[in-house]
């Protein structure tokens, strides 16, 4: 088993802003602006049909609620949230265009032949906000699991709701507490298992680490994706970087992190589909064992370490204001 890494996986001091990076931040500002315009355009192109679909589903549920004896929307069948085929078809090329404007000019894909139909759940190592967009560009329409706060984000919330995402209520998260009750579940394991049983034909993507990170490692896996005890499709992302790490974690500033990404000449990513992991009888019985063995296989393929940190440590860093300075040379707030 790989040795745990001693450094915090949420902090990056290995890619400071030197003379070369500072020059790019100035000289490539016009390029960053044009890329931002392209990203906004792509979001609008995905958001319009998504928003229309969400509104139509809302009207249908409202009619059913009026006809039903109960006014609780959560009691209505999940089939009413079936994703529009138009959204499924439209999201794939738009997601690829969004990546192009984000600097991912080429996407290297390995092991696509491992993508099997007998896996309903796909798990991946969560590094950057680009991860789910990459999956949309490669797989087209699918469902997923996201933190509850995502449901309230401009543009992104409507798109995720249209794709029938499950929104998970995280403990001690102010952003999730503010999410609308009808867009979140406080029992993610039960909701995920129910979704898999109700829609086995629709791929469900899950980041078992539950958060983004900066370091090359794997955080603790949550059990939810492994509770159903069915085969899972592991997918790993490798972001090759020399001057700038697109991994999110806890950057000095979220907007500045995006700006640095847009000022890169090109961003590199490699996506690898691993062989479907079919659980043994023991792994079906114990989701923790199942999760750990999938985690070890993914770490072995990545050639990275396992760490004990989870989303709780990231929340502590943000609450205490511990983050890299603007140059990325030291930590502030310590």
Give a short summary of the structure.
The chain has 334 residues and is of the alpha/beta class. It has a single domain, classed as Glycerol-3-phosphate (1)-acyltransferase, CATH 3.40.1130.
- Give the distance, in angstroms, between the N- and C-terminal Cα atoms: 32 Å
Number of helices: 11
The coarse silhouette is globular
Q: Please give the radius of gyration in angstroms.
A: 20 Å
What class do helices, strands and sheet pairing give? Answer: alpha/beta
Word description of this protein:
The chain is α/β, with parallel strands linked by helices. The chain has one domain: Glycerol-3-phosphate (1)-acyltransferase (3-Layer(aba) Sandwich). Helix content is 41%, strand content 11%. The chain is built from eleven helices and eleven strands. The strands form three sheets. The chain has a seven-stranded mixed beta sheet, with helices on one face. α3 packs across α4. The longest helix has 39 residues, at 29-67. The radius of gyration is 20 Å and the shape is globular. 38% of the residues are buried. Residues 1-5, 73-81 and 173-177 have low confidence and may be disordered.
List keywords for this structure.
334 residues; alpha/beta; Glycerol-3-phosphate (1)-acyltransferase; 7-stranded mixed sheet; 41% helix; disordered N terminus
Secondary-structure map with pairings?
Blueprint: H1 19-27, H2 29-67, H3 85-101, E1 108-110, E2 121-124, H4 130-139, E3 143-147, H5 156-162, E4 166-168, H6 174-177, H7 188-198, E5 204-206, E6 217-218, E7 232-238, H8 254-262, E8 270-273, H9 281-285, H10 287-302, E9 305-306, H11 311-320, E10 323-324, E11 331-332
Parallel strand pairs: 1-8, 2-5, 2-7, 3-4, 3-5, 6-9
Antiparallel strand pairs: 7-8, 10-11
Helix pairs in contact: 2-3, 2-5, 3-4
């Amino acid at each position: 088993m790989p040795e745990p890494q001693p450094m915090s996986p949420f902090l990056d001091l290995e890619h400071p802003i030197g003379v070369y990076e500072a020059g790019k931040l100035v000289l490539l500002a016009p390029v960053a602006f044009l890329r931002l315009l392209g990203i906004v355009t792509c979001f609008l192109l995905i958001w319009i049909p998504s928003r229309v679909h969400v509104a139509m589903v809302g009207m249908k549920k409202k009619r059913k609620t009026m006809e039903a004896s109960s006014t609780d929307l959560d009691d209505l069948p999940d089939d009413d949230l079936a994703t529009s085929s138009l959204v499924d078809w439209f999201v794939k090329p738009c997601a690829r265009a969004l990546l192009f404007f984000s600097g991912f000019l080429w996407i290297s894909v390995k092991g696509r032949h491992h993508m099997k139909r007998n896996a309903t759940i796909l798990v991946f190592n969560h590094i950057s906000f680009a991860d789910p967009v990459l999956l949309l560009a490669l797989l087209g329409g699918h469902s997923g699991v996201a933190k509850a706060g995502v449901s309230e984000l401009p543009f992104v919330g409507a798109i995720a709701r249209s794709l029938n995402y499950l929104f998970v209520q995280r403990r001690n998260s102010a952003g999730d507490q503010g999410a609308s009750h009808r867009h979140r579940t406080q029992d993610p394991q039960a909701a995920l298992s129910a979704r898999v049983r109700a829609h086995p034909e629709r791929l469900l993507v899950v980041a078992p680490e539950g958060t983004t990170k900066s370091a090359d490692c794997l955080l603790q896996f949550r059990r939810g994706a492994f509770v159903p005890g069915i085969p899972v499709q592991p997918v790993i992302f490798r972001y090759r970087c020399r001057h700038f790490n697109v991994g999110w974690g806890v950057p000095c500033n979220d907007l500045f992190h995006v700006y640095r990404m847009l000022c890169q000449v090109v961003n590199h990513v490699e996506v690898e589909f691993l062989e479907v992991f079919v659980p043994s009888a023991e792994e079906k019985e114990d989701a923790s064992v199942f999760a750990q063995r999938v985690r070890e296989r993914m770490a072995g393929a990545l050639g990275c370490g396992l760490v004990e940190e989870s989303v709780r440590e990231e929340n502590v860093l943000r609450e205490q204001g511990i983050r890299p300075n603007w140059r990325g040379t030291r930590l502030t707030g310590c």
